[in-house]
User: Which sequence fits this backbone?
C-alpha cells in the first residue's frame, strides 16, 4: 500500500536506516521485514530484545520539557520501527507486554497533536508493536490509546487520518466491548468512522481503513461479551451498504476490491461475534444477494444482473440478462445467463472468436493463490459441465459459453504488454481475495442462521432443477470453475455447512415413483438437487489437483452421503462414487486418505443396511473393478497444464498396483468358505495392522521405513470404518469375527490410548451385533446367527486378553469407560456358559469401577451392572442382586447428574428383575431379599423422583415396580407406612407436574404398575383418592396422547370394585374416560393424531373393564350416563372397538403403552357377554333398590344392544 499523499520522506533511524513504511492492519498481514545498513537481517534474538530495551529506556527518560524532544522522538521512533518483532521471525522473542504498554502510554503523552509528523510516526509505532508482538493491553493503556487516536482524528489534518485510523484499528482489535464509552464519537450519526466509511467518501484509502477499524471493533475474541447491539447494528448497516453500492466511476478497481474486502470482513465479524439475528426476511435476503454477487467477483465471463434481494422460494430464481456493458479488459467470451421471463436463449449459437489453442503452464503465479489451479482446455471443461449424461451429450461445441478465462491461456493469446499483464495479475489476486472473503462471510451466515430459515434459500446456492438450458451460478459453479484452490475449498466448506444437519430437510426427497407430467413435486426437486450434487462433486473429484481442496471435497461428499435419503432415491448413485474414491485411499497426503475413509464410513452408515452398499461390500476385490472403470487419470485434468500432473496425484496411479500388495487377504480358518472378505474390511485391517509401503508427503522422509505403520489419524479412521461396517452390515462381517477380534486385541495391546479406545469400541460393536442377532423380535434364523460356541469362544478370548488391562488403566478414564461398555455387550446366553472365574472377574471389576473418581467410568460401570442384572443366569442370584442394589443406591447420591441418571436407569432394570423373579420364582425370592434393602430402594427412588427429568423418568419406573413387588407383610409394617405414602405422592406429583412428557407417561405407567399389587390398600389409603384424581385429570386434559393412553390404561388395572373406592370416585373415573373418548380426536398436533386410534382402543377397553367390575350401587349413575348423549358416543366407539382387529391400533410403540392384555374381536365380545350375564343376574340391595334396578335395566339393555350389533355380519 502506498503511503498517504503529502507525507515527507521517511526519517533516518539507527545507523542511517530508513524508517520502515506504514503497514496496513490485516489478520493475514505478512510479517515485517526490516532493512539493515550492513546487508542481511540481524539474527540475534538477544540484540533485538536489547535494542528494544535501550530504545524504551531512552524514550521513558524523555520529558515534555526536554531539549530537542522532537529530534529525539523522531530518532527513537525510527529505530523502533526499523526492527522486526514478529513472532514468526523470532518465535522466542521475550518482550514483556507491560513494557510495551508503558512505552506507548508515555510516548502518547510526549507527542502533542499539533506535531502531525510525530503523530503519524507514533501511530505507525502503535500498529507496528501491537500487530507484531500480539500484545494484550491492560485497561489503562487501551483507554489512553483510544483516547489519543480519537482526539487525533478530531484535531489533526485529514492527510494524517489514514495512519491514525490504522493505529486505532490495531488498538480496538478484539477490544470493542471494553472501549464502548468512546464509540459514540466514532460510530454515532456524525462519527468520524461513519463519515469515512460512507459510500460517498471519495478517498478510498480512508474508506478502507475506516471499514477495517469498524470490523476490528466488531471482532470478538472467544469468551468475550459481544459488542453492544446499537453499535453492531450501525456497523452492519454500513458494511451491507458498502457491499451493495456500485464502484464509483473514477475509482481504481484494486482500491475498490480492498474496500469490499474490509466490508466483508466486518460483516463476518458482526454475524459471528455473538448471538446475531437478522431483523427480517428482507435483510437476510439482501445479505445473501450481495454475498452471492461477490462470490463471483472478477470471474471472467460472468455478466448478469444480480437481484438486490433473494427471497426464500421453493423454485430457483435465475439471474437475468444484464444491460449492455463495456467489454472486459481481457476480452474473454462472457458466459451470460439469459433466462428472462421464463424464456431461455442458451441454445442460440454464438460466433466463435477464434479457434481454441493448447494451454501452456502458467509461468508466473500471484502469491501462491493459484498454485494448484491449472487451466482447462475448452473441450474438457465443457465435458466437465455436461458430463455424466451419456456419451452422446458430452460432445464439444466450440461456440458454447465457458467460464474459461482468457488470462489463463497461452501468452500468444494475450493482448497485454508485460506491465499490463502484471497489473492484470494483481487485479486477479485482489478479485480472488474478495471471493474468499465473500465465502468466509457466507460460511458465517450459514452457521449463524437457523437451518429451517436457510432451507428457503437453497435453490440460490444449490441447483435443484435438471441439467438443461443456461446453468445457474451456484456454489457448484465455483467448485467446478474457479481457478483458485483456496476459493474452491471455501465454497466446499460452505456447501458442507449447508449439508450438515440437513437430514430432516432432505428426508422428503424421493424419485422412485414414476415422474408426473402435470407438475413437479417438491420431493422430486430435492431428489434432483441431490443427484446434481453427486454429479458435480464427482466431476470436481476427477479434476481436483490441490490436496487441501481435495480433502475438503471428499469431506463435503461425506456430508452429502450422511444426510441424503438414498432409500427413497433410485439406486445407482453410490456405486460410481464408491469406485471413484477407491484410488485416493493410497494418496500421498494423509488428510486425503483420512477424508476418504470418512466418506467410506458415511457410505456404510447411510440408512444401513442399504441394498446398493450391501452389493458393493460383497464385491470381493474393489481394486479389480476400479481397474476397469474410470480413474482420475482416464480424462485430461481440466486444471492441468501441458499434461504435467500435480505431485499430489502420483500415488493414484500407484494405487492400481498396490491395491493387491498392500491389502492381503485375511487368512481363513479351515472350516470356513473360500469367499473373499469384503474389500473395505480388508483395507481397514491392512491400514490398522500392516506397515506402510512408502512414506507420504505429509509424513516426511524421516518417518519412512519398512516397518512404519500408517499415521495415527489414518488408523483411527480405519477403525471407525470397521466399527460402522460391523454395526450396519454385521451379516457380512460375522464370518470374520475372529480376525476382527484379533485386530481389536492388537489395538488394545498398543500404547496409544486413542488406538486402544477404538479397539475397545470395535469389540463393543461386535458384541452388540451378536446380541441383535439373538433378539427374538429380529427374527434372524438360527442358521444365519453366529453359532453359540463361537460366541462363547470369542468372549473367552477377549476376556483373557488385553481388555483387562484397559479396564484397569486409571491413567485413561475414557478407555476404562469404553472397556466397561464392551463388558456390557456380552450376549447373556454366552455369559452363562463362560467359566465361573470369568463371570466373577467381570462382576468384581464392574462393582469396583463404580467407586472410581471419574464420573465417566462410574457411569459406564453402573450402566453395565444395570444390564447384567437382567441376565437370566444372574437375576435369580439374591447376593448379586443385593450387591448391585447397594452399588446403585450409592451412585444415586453422586453429585454428577450423568451418574445419577444412569443409576436410576439401572435401578429401573433391577426392579424389573424383581418383578420377573416374583412372577417366575415366587415368594421364595421375595422372602430372601432383605426388607431393609427394599426400604432403602423405595426411599432412594422417591428422592430421585424429585431430581432432574433425566433421573426422574427412570426413578418413577422403579417406584412403580417396587410398589408392585412389596408384600402384604411389608406394607403393614410401620416402617413402610410413611415411605409408601411418600412414594405414591411422588408419582402423583410427577403425573400432575410440568415435567417432560416421557417422565409423565412413565409416572402414569408406574401408578398402573402399583395398582397391580393386590396388597396395596387402594380402598382405604388416604393417597388413593389423589392418585385417581391425577389420572382422571391428565386423561382428559393432557395434550400428549401417550400420557392419556397410559393414564387410561392405569385406571383399568385394579381387578376388584373395592379398589376404586366409593361410588362417587368410581363414577368420576367413568366420566373421565368417557370424556377422553369423546375428545380422542381433538388435537392441533398431527404428530399426536397418529396415536388417536391407540387412545380410543385403550379408553374403550377401560370403560368395558369398569362395567365388568361394577356393582349394584353403581347402576343408577351408569344408567344415567348410558341413557344420555354421553352413552350414545360411548356406544359408537365401543362398536368400533369390538369389531376392529388389532391392526387398527397404530401408534403403539411397545408393549408398555397399554396395561391391559390384547385380544381379538371374538374374545372381546365373549368378555362383553360375560359382563352382560353377570349384570343381568345382579341383585339390587340397599335403600335405593328400585333406583338401582332401573339403572341396571338401562345398562343391561345397552350391553344387549351392543352385543347384537357386533354379532351382525
Assistant:
Amino acid at each position: 500500500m502506498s503511503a498517504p499523499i503529502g507525507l515527507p520522506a521517511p526519517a533516518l533511524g539507527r545507523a542511517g536506516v530508513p524508517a520502515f513504511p506504514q503497514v496496513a492492519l490485516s489478520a493475514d498481514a505478512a510479517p515485517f521485514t526490516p532493512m539493515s545498513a550492513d546487508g542481511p537481517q540481524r539474527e540475534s534474538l538477544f540484540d533485538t530484545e536489547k535494542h528494544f530495551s535501550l530504545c524504551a529506556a531512552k524514550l521513558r527518560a524523555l520529558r515534555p520539557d526536554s531539549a530537542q524532544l522532537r529530534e529525539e522522538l523522531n530518532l527513537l521512533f525510527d529505530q523502533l520501527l526499523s526492527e522486526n518483532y514478529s513472532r514468526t521471525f523470532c518465535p522466542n522473542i521475550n518482550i514483556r507486554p507491560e513494557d510495551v504498554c508503558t512505552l506507548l502510554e508515555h510516548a502518547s503523552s510526549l507527542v502533542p497533536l499539533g506535531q502531525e509528523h510525530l503523530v503519524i510516526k507514533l501511530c505507525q509505532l502503535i500498529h507496528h508493536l501491537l500487530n507484531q508482538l500480539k500484545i494484550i493491553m491492560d485497561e489503562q493503556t487501551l483507554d489512553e490509546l483510544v483516547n489519543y487516536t480519537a482526539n487525533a482524528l478530531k484535531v489533526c489534518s485529514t492527510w494524517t487520518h489514514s495512519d491514525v485510523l490504522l493505529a486505532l484499528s490495531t488498538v480496538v482489535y478484539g477490544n470493542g466491548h471494553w472501549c464502548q464509552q468512546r464509540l459514540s464519537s466514532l460510530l454515532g450519526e456524525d462519527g468520524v468512522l461513519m463519515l469515512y466509511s460512507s459510500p460517498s467518501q471519495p478517498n478510498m484509502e480512508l474508506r478502507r481503513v475506516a471499514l477495517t477499524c469498524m470490523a476490528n471493533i466488531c471482532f470478538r475474541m472467544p469468551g468475550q461479551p459481544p459488542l453492544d447491539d446499537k453499535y453492531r447494528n450501525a456497523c452492519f448497516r454500513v458494511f451491507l451498504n458498502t457491499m451493495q453500492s456500485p464502484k464509483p466511476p473514477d475509482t481504481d478497481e484494486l482500491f475498490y476490491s480492498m474496500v469490499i474486502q474490509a466490508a466483508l470482513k466486518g460483516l463476518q465479524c458482526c454475524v459471528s461475534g455473538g448471538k446475531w439475528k437478522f431483523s427480517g426476511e428482507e435483510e437476510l435476503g439482501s445479505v445473501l444477494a450481495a454475498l452471492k454477487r461477490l462470490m463471483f467477483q472478477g470471474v471472467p465471463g460472468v455478466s448478469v444482473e444480480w437481484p438486490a434481494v433473494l427471497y426464500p422460494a421453493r423454485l430457483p430464481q435465475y439471474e437475468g440478462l444484464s444491460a449492455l456493458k463495456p467489454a472486459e479488459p481481457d476480452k474473454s467470451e462472457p458466459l451470460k445467463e439469459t433466462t428472462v421471463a421464463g424464456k431461455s436463449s442458451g441454445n442460440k449459437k454464438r460466433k466463435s472468436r477464434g479457434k481454441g489453442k493448447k494451454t501452456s503452464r502458467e509461468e508466473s503465479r500471484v502469491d501462491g493463490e493459484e498454485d494448484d489451479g491449472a487451466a482447462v482446455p475448452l473441450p474438457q471443461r465443457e465435458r466437465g459441465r455436461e458430463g455424466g449424461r451419456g456419451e452422446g451429450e458430452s460432445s464439444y461445441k466450440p461456440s458454447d459459453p465457458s467460464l474459461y478465462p482468457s488470462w489463463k491461456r497461452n501468452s500468444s493469446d494475450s493482448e497485454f504488454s508485460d506491465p499490463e499483464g502484471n497489473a492484470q495479475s494483481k487485479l486477479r489476486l485482489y478479485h480472488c481475495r474478495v471471493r474468499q472473503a465473500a465465502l468466509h462471510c457466507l460460511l458465517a451466515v450459514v452457521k449463524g442462521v437457523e437451518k429451517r430459515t436457510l432451507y428457503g434459500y437453497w435453490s440460490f446456492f444449490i441447483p435443484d432443477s435438471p441439467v438443461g438450458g443456461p446453468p445457474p451460478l451456484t456454489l457448484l459453479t465455483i467448485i467446478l470453475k474457479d481457478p483458485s484452490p483456496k476459493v474452491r475449498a471455501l465454497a466446499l466448506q460452505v456447501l458442507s455447512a449447508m449439508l450438515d444437519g440437513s437430514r430432516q430437510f432432505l428426508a422428503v426427497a424421493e424419485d422412485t415413483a414414476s415422474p408426473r407430467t402435470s407438475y413437479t413435486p417438491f420431493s422430486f426437486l430435492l431428489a434432483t438437487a441431490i443427484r446434481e450434487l453427486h454429479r458435480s462433486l464427482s466431476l470436481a473429484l476427477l479434476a481436483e489437483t490441490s490436496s487441501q481442496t481435495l480433502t475438503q471435497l471428499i469431506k463435503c461428499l461425506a456430508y452429502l452421503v450422511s444426510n441424503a435419503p438414498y432409500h427413497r432415491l433410485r439406486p445407482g448413485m453410490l456405486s460410481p462414487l464408491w469406485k471413484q474414491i477407491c484410488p485416493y485411499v493410497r494418496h500421498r497426503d494423509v488428510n486425503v486418505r483420512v477424508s476418504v475413509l470418512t466418506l467410506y464410513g458415511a457410505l456404510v452408515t447411510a440408512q444401513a443396511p442399504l441394498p446398493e452398499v450391501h452389493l458393493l461390500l460383497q464385491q470381493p476385490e474393489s481394486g479389480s473393478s476400479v481397474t476397469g472403470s474410470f480413474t482420475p487419470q482416464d480424462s485430461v485434468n481440466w486444471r492441468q497444464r501441458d499434461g504435467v500432473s500435480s505431485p499430489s496425484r502420483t500415488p493414484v496411479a500407484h494405487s492400481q498396483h498396490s491395491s493387491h500388495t498392500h491389502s492381503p487377504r485375511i487368512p481363513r480358518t479351515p472350516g470356513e468358505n473360500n469367499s473373499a472378505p469384503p474389500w473395505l474390511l480388508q483395507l481397514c485391517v491392512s491400514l490398522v495392522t500392516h506397515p506402510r509401503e512408502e512414506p507420504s508427503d505429509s509424513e516426511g522422509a524421516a518417518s519412512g521405513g519398512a516397518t512404519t505403520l500408517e499415521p495415527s489419524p489414518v488408523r483411527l479412521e480405519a477403525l471407525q470404518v470397521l466399527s460402522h461396517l460391523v454395526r450396519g452390515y454385521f451379516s457380512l462381517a460375522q464370518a470374520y469375527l475372529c480376525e476382527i477380534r484379533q485386530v481389536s486385541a492388537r489395538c488394545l495391546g498398543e500404547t496409544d490410548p486413542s488406538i486402544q479406545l477404538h479397539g475397545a469400541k470395535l469389540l463393543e460393536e461386535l458384541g452388540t451385533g451378536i446380541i441383535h442377532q439373538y433378539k427374538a423380535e429380529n427374527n434372524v434364523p438360527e442358521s444365519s446367527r453366529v453359532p453359540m460356541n463361537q460366541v462363547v469362544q470369542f468372549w473367552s478370548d477377549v476376556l483373557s486378553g488385553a481388555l483387562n488391562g484397559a479396564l484397569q488403566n486409571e491413567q485413561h478414564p475414557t478407555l476404562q469407560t469404553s472397556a466397561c461398555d464392551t463388558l456390557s455387550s456380552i450376549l447373556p446366553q454366552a455369559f452363562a456358559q463362560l467359566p465361573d472365574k470369568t463371570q466373577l472377574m467381570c462382576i468384581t471389576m464392574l462393582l469396583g469401577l463404580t467407586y472410581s473418581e471419574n464420573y465417566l467410568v462410574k457411569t459406564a460401570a453402573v450402566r453395565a451392572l444395570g444390564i447384567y442384572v437382567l441376565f437370566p443366569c444372574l437375576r435369580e442370584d439374591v447376593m448379586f442382586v443385593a450387591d448391585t442394589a447397594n452399588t446403585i443406591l450409592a451412585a444415586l447420591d453422586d453429585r454428577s447428574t450423568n451418574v445419577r441418571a444412569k443409576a436410576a436407569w439401572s435401578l429401573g432394570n433391577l426392579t424389573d428383575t424383581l418383578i420377573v423373579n416374583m412372577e417366575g420364582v415366587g415368594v421364595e425370592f421375595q422372602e430372601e431379599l432383605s426388607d431393609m434393602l427394599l426400604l432403602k430402594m423405595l426411599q432412594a427412588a422417591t428422592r430421585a423422583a424429585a431430581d432432574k427429568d433425566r433421573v426422574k423418568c427412570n426413578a418413577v419406573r422403579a417406584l412403580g415396580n417396587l410398589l408392585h413387588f412389596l408384600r402384604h407383610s411389608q406394607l403393614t409394617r410401620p416402617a413402610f407406612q410413611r415411605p409408601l405414602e411418600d412414594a405414591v405422592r411422588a408419582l402423583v406429583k410427577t403425573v400432575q407436574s410440568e415435567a417432560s412428557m416421557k417422565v409423565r407417561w412413565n409416572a402414569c405407567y408406574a401408578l398402573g404398575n402399583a395398582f397391580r399389587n393386590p396388597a396395596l390398600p387402594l380402598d382405604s389409603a388416604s393417597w388413593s383418592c389423589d392418585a385417581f384424581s391425577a389420572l382422571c385429570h391428565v386423561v382428559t386434559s393432557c395434550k400428549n396422547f401417550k400420557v392419556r393412553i397410559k393414564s387410561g390404561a392405569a385406571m383399568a388395572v385394579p381387578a376388584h370394585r373395592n379398589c376404586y373406592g366409593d361410588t362417587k370416585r368410581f363414577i368420576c373415573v367413568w366420566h373421565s374416560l368417557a370424556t377422553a373418548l369423546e375428545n380422542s380426536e381433538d388435537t392441533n398436533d398431527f404428530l399426536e393424531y397418529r396415536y388417536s386410534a391407540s387412545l380410543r382402543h385403550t379408553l374403550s377397553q377401560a370403560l368395558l373393564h369398569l362395567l365388568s367390575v361394577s356393582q349394584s350401587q353403581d347402576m343408577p349413575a351408569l344408567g344415567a350416563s348410558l341413557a344420555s348423549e354421553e352413552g350414545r358416543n360411548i356406544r359408537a366407539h365401543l362398536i368400533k372397538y369390538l369389531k376392529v382387529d388389532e391392526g387398527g391400533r397404530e401408534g403403539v410403540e411397545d408393549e408398555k403403552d397399554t396395561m391391559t392384555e390384547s385380544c381379538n374381536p371374538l374374545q372381546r365380545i365373549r368378555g362383553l357377554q360375560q359382563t352382560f350375564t353377570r349384570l343381568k343376574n345382579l341383585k339390587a340391595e340397599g335403600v335405593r333398590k328400585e333406583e338401582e334396578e332401573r339403572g341396571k335395566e338401562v345398562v343391561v339393555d345397552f350391553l344387549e344392544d351392543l352385543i347384537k350389533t357386533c354379532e351382525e355380519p
